[in-house]
């Protein structure tokens, strides 16, 4: 069947065009997408040709990973249900991760409509809340994971590196668990959107020393959302004994972390990635009850036909940008 998609044809080349998808079968359903939420960091990495797939960096000799339909999160309305699918019906409002596609470097697609998907990739949306609030559910769930994994007690200090979407949601989740959160970032406009704790501008003095002054007994939780080994080392220098580090960034091929230094304080390290139905459900509930805020982080909405303009903005940062929605 035919569909429309946002295609990365080559490095830094974005087009909105017709694509081919497999015809749906009895165990699948078809969704008309209304909105998709761009994952700025991950998809930018794809657009630059840095990834073979989700967590695998392109290495010398690997084939160019194009063309590809990036993305992994969207909302829409069910328009067709296969005879073997019993948990959905036409008209349901749903969230979808990836969909099937043909003729691309990967057989999975994010920004595509209609979406041919298996039930395992589809989740019903609660009623009464703007569906766009859930359009970035996978990425929101990564922030949830960052904030939910660490061991902490109410009042424990936590430092999050990165003022992007994952950093924002990680900070929100840690604050909801009672942590005293410091969000460190490079963009004052983004930091201004974080209301759950203190913020520090990375380029304004030495944030490490400021954190050490504020928490002389050390930090319990440190989260790197930007994929920086330097950030991991800086966090290590602020941690208390038996503290907990979380890594949620993409380090590319430069991902060799020396473990021995982290043994001196007997730190734990969690590596978060991907999604599970259980975590998506927990994240959806936290969005529904207001614990995790998503709509206030949206800065731009583009008609999907102008996706290339959205990507020019994300890559150039010619104006303050954070959450970017494609309207279908």
From TrEMBL:
Pfam families xref list: ADH_N (PF08240), ADH_zinc_N (PF00107)
Swiss-Prot/TrEMBL cofactor(s): Zn(2+)
Coiled-coil intervals, chain numbering: none
Keyword Metal-binding applies: yes
GO molecular function terms noted in the UniProt entry: metal ion binding; oxidoreductase activity
Alcohol dehydrogenase-like N-terminal domain span: 56-99
InterPro entries, alphabetized: ADH-like_C, ADH-like_N, GroES-like_sf, NAD(P)-bd_dom_sf
Keyword annotations from UniProtKB, A to Z: Metal-binding, Oxidoreductase, Zinc
Domain of life, source organism: Bacteria
Domain Alcohol dehydrogenase-like C-terminal, residue spans: 166-288
Family to which the UniProt record says this protein belongs: Belongs to the zinc-containing alcohol dehydrogenase family.
The protein, known as: Zinc-binding dehydrogenase
Lineage: Bacteria, Pseudomonadati, Verrucomicrobiota, Opitutia, Puniceicoccales
